[in-house]
Write a structure and sequence with these properties.
Blueprint (H helix, E strand, L loop, with lengths): L1 H47 L8 H24 L6 H19 L9 H9 L5 H21 L9 H143 L8 H50 L4 H47 L4 H101 L1
Helix pairs in contact: 1-2, 1-3, 1-4, 2-3, 3-4, 3-5, 4-5, 4-6, 5-6, 6-7, 6-9, 7-8, 8-9
Amino acid sequence: MVIILFMDNNTRKELFDEIIFNNHKRLFKAFTSIAVLALLATFIILITGTGSHYLTITDIILTGILSAIVLSTGFVIVRKYKHEWFSPYLSVFIVMLSLFIFQYIIYGSRELFAAHYIVLALSVFYFNTRVAVFAFITVVLSQIILFILRPQLIPEGPVGSIIGVRFLIYIWVGISAVFGTKATRALLELALDKADEAKNKHERIAVIAQNVEHSIGVLNEKSTEQATVVDTINDLANKQAASLEEISASVEELTSNAENISNTARSLYQEMQIANESVSDLKKVFEEITKSAGTIAHAIENITSLSNDSIQKMDVTLKQFQDLITFSNNMSSFVEVINQIADQVNLLSLNASIEAARAGDAGRGFAVVADEISKLADATAQNASQIAKIIAQTQNLMNSSNTSITDTSRFLSKLNGEIRTIMQEISHTNTLIQDVNVSIKAIANLNTQIYNAIETIETSTSEQRIANEEASKTIVYVSDAAQNLTDIVNTVSNVASSIKDIAQNLYTLVQAMTKA
């Protein structure tokens, strides 16, 4: 704050010195004009011959040279010391000296005393009462000395009255100059204060303008950065929209595949229900066969007493074996169905694994289930192959039994001789039936496992379908949000552009204000 005040005082002093120097020039110009006019008038008077006898061309030239030397030398000195406190006194003294020389040499020009009033009047513009007093004293002393050295300058008539009036006018003008100096000094101080105030305001405005200009620069920079960010967000939003479209298409495809898998699993589930029912029926048939085998054994034990009924019993047995062969053929068809189901399960498992791989982390659990289903299908296929072999053996045995029964019918007369062979065959058949029964139980267990696995697949695909639907809804929501974000970004971009235009207009105004 002290530095600012110091700078203000320096500026104030420079302004005051400039005003004083301008007054120096004004004073010198005024007296130079008076001297030139006086010399010109004197020269005209000399030429016309209306002047006094002591007015010569030599006096005019000498007066002009001396006045020019005094004024020019004095002005150079005053200009050199224009910042010094004594420069106003020096200016007044030099002008009065030049006027004294003029009046002393050309003493016939009594009217030149009026030039003293000009000196007194111009002393007011030094804004210093001391200078005004000095000018008054210099005028009075100059007039007194001239009256002493050149009595010719004393006006004609009542000397006392005329000189008294002249000096009273000097006093009145001097007093007026003193008061005028005070008044003009006050006005100058007020003007300087107003100038300082205006300068301070201008400086504050300049500082504010610089701050505003800096803020505008920052605003332009931030607007540019914001525009760049808006463009980046817009590009990201467009890329996100494209990605969402691809994801949506993938989800729709996944939903379609899941629906197909679910339908296939549902069909397989229904087929397995039928297969389970067939296995249950087959189990019942084998139970009947077991019961029939017991009946046959009992009949053989009593065959001796029931030989008359043997033919009928053999017919019944033959028919049952034919039914058994039919059932065995049905079992072969069932095994083929199981193999086909296993192949379909393998194919579905492969497709599920592929879709799980496409789904990424979200499909890992589904991939594990698909792998387990594939393993279970392979095991089912192997067991079905074993069952097929057993059924083939059973069919062979049944064919052999059928042949045996046929032979028994034909050789009923040899029934007693072949009874032991029949008992052995029946015993062996019972053993095979037991094995077939065990295999059927194994198939039933496998069917149960496949049934449960298919049910799990159906549940998983249903859950996957629901998840896909939720994902599709989420994608739609995200897509809408992305569109809203794009709209917001466009709005922000428009606002940023408007702000940039406003900042540019404000910058133009600040530049104009700064130049002003």
